[in-house]
Each structure stands twice: as structure tokens, then as C-alpha cells.
């Protein structure tokens, strides 16, 4: 087994939400999250809204310090023994690509400007023009027609390619991609997913791929982790988790997929019975996990001592 590039060990994050009226509310956004990613591989985090996927991504880009647990990069705890140069190296090695490329591109700057600075920081000024053109070519954008454009002059898919180009420009080894295609037109989603696959295979870039779209998880990621209420319910090879989910919650989540027209709470058309069953599964999945059973090689399924099985 290759040494992991990134590993999370028992990572928890609690937010204290202070409403204008009423008592402070505690949100356990992450509870004991454990997984790892090898260089050049991808792990998909899937789960419904509010399950903690983005919080997990933010812990990885060091947006905040976890309330408990450790995040390691190349075996080093990213919150320990920090030096300025170590911090800079980490912030380059781990890049985030967001759902909305507009949020991370400055509307007043050209694509050239967006890429020149990171390229200079990462590799100096030598051959800058050639590297600039190459970086765009690496994400399948035509340098001649793209370099001098502003973000609003590009399509959504092209803008997202620029986000990936920026990550390449600083020499990213891990990209946290948070729903990178969900705002794109369906017809171009696949080409962006194909680009991610190429970056993995040809550049050995690892991905933490956050998505609602389980079918794409399978397309991009060797491994998939299913989250609910801040906990990882199941993780393992994508094929096994998606085709043969073992945790009742994963089954519920994945059962909603084959027919997108069906709602999550009405997946078998028998509304009421399914809704009751789904509620019971969710209530059970929200309880603290006691541990994981390895049901097949590298395929882990959560159990709770409060469960009866
Ligand atoms: N800064 C914050 N302060 C308070 N609560 C937060 C904060 N960030 C996230 N949360 C809460 O943590 C939980 C997990 O949120 P998160 O954004 O990680 O979910 P998600 O799985 O990414 O959902 P989505 O699919 O909608 O993007 C939610 O209950 C959310 O309200
Ligand atoms: Mg999110």
C-alpha cells in the first residue's frame, strides 16, 4: 500500500451558533471523521445537504482547526510545528475548487493575470509565457483565445477550467473539489469530470471530490465515503459502496438515485411506508457511531452500540 497523501483521523468540528434570539445552538458538523487519500487517487464524499461534506473540505484546506482529531499531509499533522514556509508549501499543495467559479475569480482581471501570479510564485519568471500557455493547454483551453479574456467572457465550463489551471499553476498535489460541476450545464459536466480524471492520471493529482451526484462519484473516485449528520456511515471502493451499499443509510441515499424524478422520501412510490422507514433509518444513522466493521477488504460500515443488530 502506498503511504497516504492526506489522512483524517477522528476529525470533529463543533460550531456554536448564536441566534439573535434564543439559546446558543451546538452543531456537530463533523464527528470522528476518518479516511485517507493516496497520491493520484480520489475519494468522493457523498451525502445529502448539511451532512458535513464542505466542512470536511474546509478542514482539509485548513480553514479552521478541528475541535478534535488530526489532519495529516504526507504524515505530518498540519496544525503542528507550523513554520511560514511550511504553511506556504501546504497552501500551495492543497487547492480548493468551488462550485461557483465566479466566487474565486476576480471579475476585473484577465485570465492571464489569474495565472501569472501563481506561476511566478511557484516557479519564478523563467519561461513564464510558455508555462502560462502550457497551463491553459493542460486544462484544454486555447491560450490564444483565452489569455486576455475576463472571467465573464468565458462559459461556466471554461471558467471552471481556469480554476483547475490555477491549482496546476501552483503545483497542487491535492485538489478539494466541492461540487465543481453542479452549476454547469449538464452537457458540459462530463468534460469537466474527464479533465479531473486526466489530472489524476497524468499529473498524479489527488482529489477530495465532494458531490451530491453519486453516479459521478463512481466516475471520478476509487473510493467513496457516505456522510450523514457529520459522520461517515460507510466508506470503501466506489464500486462496492455504490453498487452494494451495506449501511441502511447508504442504501436509502443510493436508492434515490436511479430515477432522479423520484424524491428521496418517495423512492418506491409507496410514499408513506417509505417515509416512515426512511425516518427510522435517519434517526438511527444520527446516533454516535461506535466503530466500523470491515465487511470486505477496505470496505468499512459504521455500527452503533445503540443498534440492535
Ligand atoms: N460556519 C458555520 N457556523 C455554523 N454552522 C455551520 C458552519 N458551517 C457549517 N455549519 C453547519 O454544519 C453542518 C454541515 O454543513 P456543510 O456545509 O458541511 O454541509 P454539506 O454536506 O456541504 O451540505 P451541502 O450539500 O448543502 O453543501 C450544517 O448543519 C451547517 O449548517
Ligand atoms: Mg457543501
Quick structural summary:
The chain is of the alpha/beta class and 309 residues long.
- Mind telling me the CATH superfamily name? P-loop containing nucleotide triphosphate hydrolases
CATH architecture: 3-Layer(aba) Sandwich
Relative strand content:
15-25%
Q: Provide the structure class.
A: alpha/beta
- In total, the number of domains comes to 1
InterPro entries: AAA+_ATPase, ABC_transp_ATP-bind, ABC_transporter-like_ATP-bd, ABC_transporter-like_CS, Oligopep_ABC_C, P-loop_NTPase
Organism: Nitratireductor aquibiodomus RA22
Domain ABC transporter: 6-254
Pfam family, one: oligo_HPY
Question: Can you offer a commentary on this structure?
Answer:
The protein is of the alpha/beta class and 309 residues long. It contains twelve helices and twelve strands. It has helices at 53-60, 84-93, 101-104, 111-123, 128-138, 143-146, 156-169, 186-203, 214-220, 238-243, 248-255, 271-286; strands at residues 6-17, 25-37, 42-46, 68-73, 76-77, 94-97, 174-178, 206-211, 223-228, 231-237, 291-296, 299-303. It has an eight-stranded mixed sheet with strand order 6-7-8-3-9-10-12-11, sandwiched between helices. A four-stranded antiparallel sheet has the order 2-1-4-5, with helices on one face. Bound molecules: adenosine-5'-triphosphate and magnesium ion. Residues 15, 17, 27, 29, 47, 49-55, 212 line the site of adenosine-5'-triphosphate. GO terms for molecular function: ATP binding; ATP hydrolysis activity.
